[in-house]
Amino acid sequence: MNPTISIILPAYNAEKYLAPAIESILQQSFKDFEFIILNDGSTDNTEKIILSYTDSRIKYIKNEKNLKLIKTLNKGIELAKGKYIARMDADDIALPTMLEECYTFFETHPEYSIVAPSVYNMDNDGRTYRKGNNRYSSEVLPYILLLENIVTHPGIMLKADILKKYQYEDTGLVTHFEDHDCWNRILADGHKIYVLPRPLLLYRINNEGINLTHSDERSKLFRKRQVEWIKRQININFNVTLIDNLNKKPSWKNIFLLDKELNLILPLMLSHKVYKEFIKWKSIYLYRHITNSLYKPIFIVYCLTHSKLSLLSIVNKLIRNIKKERTDKIFNA
User: Fold this and answer.
1) Which residues does 95 contact at the CB level (< 8 Å), separation at least 6?
2) Between these two residues, 292 and 105, which has the higher pLDDT value?
């Protein structure tokens, strides 16, 4: 009999954090799964750590050479036998009910194709925690994902037939943002995504991780693909260079131009609630793209003079950035 869930964990030279990641899956409250661990040609103790576990649910796959992440992920997808496929990274920690809560949501809401947990961010030492990205509704999330990825890759679960159909594009054009591209391609065809309200994953903000070490390398390819996403899904010729202009040179003019461009999306909101959600997200998005702290007060003034922005969202974000939750608060919740 096939397992209900297939978990895919790719690992390349992952000895530093791999054991806690594996154990967090083996200790899940939901038991009916296969755990596909793919060693992508590691040269450290990754294999030794994987082979130290004797749990029969582990399916160990060894790439004889380093195939890189996308090919390894697609290999895992092809091997998966579960009704649902979940992702796990080799440096994160799944909280005990992550699989159970994602599975329960799917079984009670069959109209959704993707479900993701909220997360706690964790530093390299695994000692400091704070809640990750703001959570948004399923109605507004497809629009937000056109501009930025606020859904973490590890912990996400999809219907297996959907992920097997779309897979991760392996053309070299979406390297280091393959997950973001995959979600947008799926959503463009009318599928639905939901983010659970409760944090169920400790997501490591790793200084050596792909998202940080390859951010410059992926920027041009990302902007090009972003234009395609927006044009395909909402048929707007969005000027994505305005995002980089604000990053490079914060000014009233550049804030205004990007804000005006983002407002092109507002008429697509189907309800006042979703409209307000997008304004909340847009306010925080603009604030975060002002990289020079000296210009942040300018944006506060800008918010006060423009009705399609939310100053309260900025204030709440500042408060959230100050608050940090300790490990014991998470595990004793």
Assistant:
1) 24, 199, 200, 201, 202, 330
2) 105
